[in-house]
Design a protein that fits this description.
The structure is a single chain. With 163 residues, the protein is mostly helical. It has one domain. Helix content is 76%, strand content 0%. The longest helix is centred in the middle third of the chain and has 24 residues. The relative contact order is 0.12.
């Protein structure tokens, strides 16, 4: 499914396209999933666990947040997908689930690091992070990922604090 999202719009992806790409019968698809949104949710749950493991394994440098660094790197690799997901109503289905996963992963990182933050602080921070990323993409996403990360870390520390 992820490969298809890089090639076509969410609304244009059919169950048959998914089955053809995965080389499975439609009946097999429906044994496991009711629709493509259920498959999307499954993909995000699977990816969430992978990202949490990655974040847990990465060494956190002073003042940095691994989740936010990973987020910039991931979006940098998939700029067009993120841009189109952010610009279309159907893409909001994907983006809202992605943001939810990133919230859970960020909460996991903060808890592991024993950094206290309320749900409001996390939501506010991630809202700002996604706004900065959108500005970066709208500006043509010049290859200044490290500058973007530094600015995100500075602003995040203003909301969440340094621990």
């Amino acid at each position: 499914m992820v490969g298809l999202l890089h090639e076509t719009n969410w609304d244009d992806i059919s169950i048959q396209m998914i089955c053809d790409r995965a080389d499975v019968a439609r009946s097999s698809f429906y044994v496991h999933f009711d629709n493509k949104i259920a498959l999307l949710d499954h993909v995000f749950v699977s990816r969430e666990d992978e990202i949490k493991d990655l974040v847990t394994q990465e060494r956190r440098a002073e003042g940095e947040f691994v989740t936010l660094s990973w987020l910039v790197d991931h979006i940098s690799e998939s700029r067009e997908l993120y841009y189109y997901a952010n610009c279309s109503i159907s893409g909001q289905v994907i983006l809202s689930r992605f943001k939810s996963v990133m919230r859970d992963v960020f909460r996991h990182e903060l808890d592991d690091a024993k950094i206290s933050a309320s749900d409001d602080q996390i939501d506010f921070t991630l809202g700002g992070v996604f706004a900065l990323i959108q500005q970066w993409i709208d500006s043509g996403a010049p290859n200044l990922e490290e500058q973007l990360k530094t600015r995100m870390f500075e602003l995040t520390h203003r909301v969440i604090g340094r621990n």
